[in-house]
Amino acid sequence: MKTVVLGGGIVGVTTAYFLAKAGDEVVVLDRRDGVALETSFANAGLIAPGHSYTWASPRAPKILLKSLFTEGQALRLKPKADWRMWAWCWLFLQNCTAERSRRNTSIKVRLCRYAQQQLQQATQEERLAYDRISGGLLYLYRDPASFERGVSNMAILADNGLPLETLDRQAVMAREPALRAAGGDIAGAIYCPTDESGDAHLFTRALEQRCRELGVDFRFGTAIDGISASGDAVDYVQTSAGRVTADRYVLALGSYSPLLARGLGYRLPVYPVKGYSVTLPIEASHESPTLGGVEENQLVAWARFGQRLRLTATAEFCGYDTAHTPADFTHMLATARALFPNGADYARPSYWAGLRPMTPEGTPLIGATRHRNLFLNTGHGHMGWTMSCGTAKILADVMSGRQPDIDISGMTLQ
């Protein structure tokens, strides 16, 4: 069975890996010159079932409204004359009830736990190296009120089987000595001992090599112009290198998936949400953190990759714009300096911005479509690194006629 995977990000490459392991002849198409050069290139690096909360919560509408008038909000709305943005925002607001937030978070944490197991298995079997740290992650709170709210909210994750611990100020600094300089401004933290961190770009490159050994054909520099179908089946993919045909096709283009699917009559509820990251070098004189985590008051994440410190922040609803200026990183750098004054070389930043492919629910779209040979693996949002191996394994099972290991209700186009 020949399968074409559209997209060479972490989701596309993990999909190719699991399909090749299942015996498929796989071709991966991507317009870039290598794997993981879009959303997977410089993301947060956190493998974080302990942060599986959906963004669509009862508090989200107020934050988005406030962002129109106040700088520094974790969620930022920049209105555009784009009907797709407003249609998506309407669906997002419909999911901002307590009941739907709880349901969507339960689906996410179930998937994330399964996906982490698949990631760990692939890492072990293929001996993949990607600056992995598996000592857990810290979810840090700066004031007692937010800490109390965080402890209350964590019940939904614990109810779904995730091990979590609450740490007071002293326990936080004992767990991560690099936070001692900020000790007076720390109220406490939630610690998830099973969470991890690692460089998603390095992982994808390492898995690409294993895929090649399994016979996967990567065709880079190949723009995907459209999909042609007749009746209930896809006939071919039109690319800058000509037509590409196969028995089956997988749409794994992240934020660009709905643009291509529209030609077949689909309105996929996926929209780009822009995120920013900055990577800083670490020298011997620096006191850099070992464990990754999230500063929950400002939603600034950090992770260490060898001699690099990665900071990420902001969810900006602004369409497909990936432009950035140094001013966009002022907020996250100020937060990082407050936490880790000597954590890295702040004078040598490397800036980046990318698009998270979000669904209103925060859960991905996996599986079949009304075209019998077209399948989806898209819409992973801010959890693509965490979810990638799980959704790839699920899709490979679905396409092979096997029952997935977990219930995928709430994660399909239907």
Molecular shape: globular
E-strand count = 20
Low-confidence stretches: none
User: Proportion of β residues?
Assistant: 25-35%
Estimated helix fraction:
25-40%
Number of helical runs?
A: 11
The mean pLDDT is 94
**In angstroms, what separates the terminal alpha carbons?**
25 Å
What composes the largest sheet?
Answer: 9 strands, mixed
- Assembly status: single chain
Radius of gyration: 21 Å
Q: Give the structural class.
A: alpha/beta
Keywords: Oxidoreductase
Family: Belongs to the DadA oxidoreductase family.
EC number: 1.4.99.-
GO molecular function: oxidoreductase activity
Descriptive notes:
With 414 residues, the chain is an alpha/beta fold. 31% of the residues lie in helices and 25% in strands. It has 11 helices and 20 strands. The chain has helices spanning 10-21, 60-67, 83-94, 98-126, 144-153, 155-159, 169-175, 200-213, 257-261, 330-339, 384-399; strands spanning 2-6, 25-29, 46-47, 75-77, 137-141, 165-168, 188-192, 196-197, 217-219, 224-230, 233-239, 242-244, 248-251, 271-281, 292-295, 300-305, 308-317, 350-358, 365-368, 374-378. The strands form 4 sheets. Strands 4, 5, 6, 7, 14, 15, 16, 17 and 18 form a 9-stranded mixed beta sheet that branches. It has a 6-stranded mixed beta sheet with strand order 9-2-1-13-20-19, covered by helices on one side. Residues 3-397 form the FAD dependent oxidoreductase domain. It holds the Pfam family DAO.
